[in-house]
Amino acid sequence: MSDNKIQVGVIGCGAIGREHIERLTNVVPETKVVAVYDYVREPAETAAKQYGATVYDSGEALIRSDEVDAILVASTDDTHADYVMEALKQNKYVFCEKPLALTAKECEKMIEIETKQNKDIVYFKWALIVVLIKDMSK
Fold this sequence. Notes:
α4 packs parallel to α5 (104-117). By secondary structure, the protein is of the alpha/beta class. The termini are close together. The radius of gyration is 14 Å and the shape is globular. The chain contains six helices and six strands.
């Protein structure tokens, strides 16, 4: 954490990802979006320029970055499980857009990793996220 703010990396800079970046920036003062990735580079570059973030060449590189405390996954549905599991393995907090995964088996694997790492996966309900972020920043 830098300046008592949770440094967030956003994977997926389409319409939903941009909405989350805007909310984190304008509604949740305990966070700062510092890193972005999208498989289409242009939306990531646009978001990075607008919010002063770094563009990463892959979601995995963003997750492994030391500048990132928490990951927000807003990419295509088929990528959620892999990004969430990698973030948990890297001991990062994870906020994931729905669906969490495409199969029950993927969800079970995430829960197993989550339990070992003692990290919570957070689904998007903004009121809950604001409360959890305030708690994380203490």
